[in-house]
Design brief:
With 446 residues, this protein is an alpha+beta fold. It has helices spanning 11-23, 79-94, 107-119, 134-148, 195-204, 224-234, 302-317, 325-329, 336-340, 362-378, 427-445, and strands at residues 4-7, 29-32, 62-64, 101-104, 123-125, 128-131, 153-155, 160-166, 169-175, 180-182, 185-188, 209-210, 214-223, 238-242, 249-256, 260-266, 269-275, 284-293, 320-324, 351-353, 388-395, 400-401, 414-416. Strands 5-14-15-18-13-21-19-20 form an eight-stranded mixed beta sheet. β14 (238-242) and β15 form a beta hairpin. α2 crosses α11. It is globular, with a radius of gyration of 21 Å.
């Protein structure tokens, strides 16, 4: 028995637990997490994305304090209310040591970059960003773990099997060991890695959903000097492009000045991501170019589609593939010999030289090549033959579940939050969603 069950100990679940325990210390709160506690996690395999802190523990800890990016909470909350919540979450993160530096571009620089971007066929989205750094993000999440301490019950290394409902109301969660925990409130925060599980639960519980797009693309790595003018002013520059050939929405994502490219394990597939540290630098900058693949009837499994593309890349490269842009445009595979001649030294050593055109769909590959050309007009050197492309980078989001402004589903007492709910796409909005759900639960309990 419990008062509230939280499924998932990523940022969304953590902030839900923080809010509940702070405002109502007597509540019996249980967190169920399929991974390990933070002290037992490592930067290998699936432990990169599951366990206390979720994928955020080993991210570079960028908090984008903007209502325009990082999720879809702006469709449920007034802008001023959401902005206030973003600042509240930022204050929690920044309340700990080594909380990172805030980058906020001045209006003149933003106007200049925006004008140049439009000439290149791009839309620039100025943002205010706090960069915590990979090493500091881990430390802060560890501190949050200590803050909660014995205020909540934590069950690690245990998978939640099903969310249970009776007569239209949630009643608990069943576990993989055959037991179950009963509670009148469940907050599901499975994270991006749990998006498939959340989609299955939505079908079981007959929740109204609509497909979210799957974001597919590559991680781009190039000498930091190429983007230095932009990253010095804004740290992370976000650009949107609508492709000339297909009119698809293409965007830059997760820019890491002087950072490194890393592998991530999502279930049975290897994908790629990027990190940057607060206290050390490489000579390179990396960022993702992602294409939003949106589907209509009769297809309704964008997650399965993304998994199949990533699986193809893993099959061809025995993991992550790296290719020089010059080789891709010349229609040839990058070999170890060709990679050794590349003036951009790869930061990810466990990538296989190969040919991304064998696994990326033509449409997505065309979109990526077009955007690289546009970015080169803004920052000459992006479209160099020595720019490296790693694949596949894929971002899964559960089908977006119909939620009210409190993030409650049609099943009374069941709230769904974070990236696994298809409602957020990053650290800070995921954390905000935890607070929203917790306050809704507290209102009902009181």
């Amino acid at each position: 028995m419990a008062d509230v069950i939280i499924v998932g100990a990523g940022p969304a679940g953590i902030f839900a637990a923080l809010e509940l325990s702070k405002r109502s210390p007597a509540l019996d709160i249980v967190i169920i997490e399929q991974g390990k506690d933070i002290d037992e996690r490592s930067r290998t395999g699936s432990e990169m994305v599951i366990g206390w802190g979720g994928a955020g523990a080993y991210s570079d800890g960028k908090l984008t304090i903007s209502t325009d990016v990082g999720g879809q909470l702006s469709s449920l909350l007034p802008e001023d209310e959401l902005l206030s919540l973003l600042e509240e979450v930022d204050a929690v993160y920044s309340g700990y040591e080594s909380s990172g530096k805030v980058f906020s571009i001045n209006p003149d620089d933003a106007a200049s970059i925006s004008a140049r971007a439009r000439l290149a066929g791009l839309v620039y989205v100025p943002t205010k960003v706090r960069h915590i750094g990979t090493e500091n993000c881990y430390t802060i999440l560890k501190n949050l773990r200590e803050t909660l301490g014995n205020k909540v019950r934590m069950i690690f290394n245990t998978r939640a099997v099903d969310i249970i409902k009776q007569q239209g109301r949630v009643t608990g969660v069943s576990l993989e060991d055959g037991t179950s925990i009963e509670a009148p409130f469940v907050i599901a925060a499975p994270g991006r890695v749990g998006s498939s599980w959340m989609s299955r639960q939505a079908k079981r519980l007959c929740l109204e959903t609509r497909p979210n797009p799957v974001d597919l693309g590559v991680r781009v790595e190039l000498p930091a000097v190429v983007l230095k003018e932009l990253t010095d002013k804004a740290y992370e520059t976000k650009f949107i492009y609508y492709s000339r050939t297909f009119d698809d929405r293409v965007r830059t994502f997760c820019m890491n000045p002087y950072g490194e490219v890393v592998r991530e394990t999502l279930g049975d597939i290897l994908t790629v991501n990027g990190h940057s540290w607060a206290n050390k630098r490489t000579e390179n900058t990396n960022f993702a170019i992602l294409v939003s693949a949106d589907f209509t009837e009769p297809f309704d499994d964008p997650i399965g589609y993304g998994e199949s593309v990533a699986t193809m890349a893993n099959m061809l490269g025995k993991g992550v593939i790296v290719q020089r842009l010059g080789d891709l445009l010349a229609g040839r595979r990058t070999t170890a010999s060709r990679l050794s001649k590349c003036s951009t030294l790869p930061t990810l050593k466990q990538a296989t030289p190969g040919d991304l055109s064998y696994c990326l769909p033509y449409r997505i590959l065309t979109d990526i090549i077009e955007m690289l050309g546009c970015l080169d007009r803004l920052a000459p050197g992006v479209n160099s033959a020595h720019t490296l492309l790693y694949g596949i980078e894929v971002k899964f989001y559960s089908n977006r579940i119909r939620l009210d402004k409190d993030l409650e589903t049609q099943v009374a007492g069941l709230h769904v939050i974070g990236d696994g709910a298809g409602i957020t796409r990053g650290l800070i909005q995921a954390s905000c969603s935890g607070i929203i759900a917790a306050r809704s639960v507290l209102k009902k309990i009181n």
